[in-house]
Amino acid sequence: MAGHSKWANIQHRKGRQDEKRQRIWTRVVREIMVAARTGGGDPTSNPRLRLAIDKAKAANMPADTIKRNVDKATGNLEGVTYEEIRYEGYGIAGAAIIVDTMTDNRVRTVADVRHVFSKYGGNMGTEGSVAFQFKHCGQLIFAPGTSEDQVMEVALEAGADDVIADDEGAIEVLTEPGTFEAVKEALEAAGLKPEVAEVTMRAENTIELTGDDAERMQKLLDMIEDLDDVQNVYHNANVDLA
Q: pTM for this structure?
């Protein structure tokens, strides 16, 4: 996790999430429903559902809302069926972008995503055009000032693949998707609370964007994230807005 602006990027994303709490609820509900439909409604045997419920609780979603949407997905209540679709494309200066969506209307969604790419300086790619530049993994990020030695000791003992500190003092823990939960639980049990904890698509290499390119790239990312059907956006740009 190198680069001057990684921590700033995280703070920017968290700030936008705080501003758009209702949209976060919508996305979490969709994740709960897809996770429950594909892996069953019991979170003890469905890690993806467990993680989605954790996200819902972090967003202060009431327990009855969580249960109702699990029930919808598993057939106990009537509900909308969503499908997952991934789009790939290029942003400013050729930066790689992956857009994960959940939708009940794929024609609408692809049109919306393509329109934003085109309008804000990017372009859509074909399936597989940029995905090879990312690794599917568990990622936990701790704020600058957290003890690197303690994080490393606990994380590696619990099965993490790597622990990386960046120039600003933030600490990144990387895991295989299957060991993410065990590592997260071990770190939290040791009193180490991550700012970010997710199974993600992590860029293998990053490109630095500054000045006008950085502003244009951030605008493109923000507009993609604002689309109703978008769940997650991954990219390989370090956007320095300073």
A: 0.79
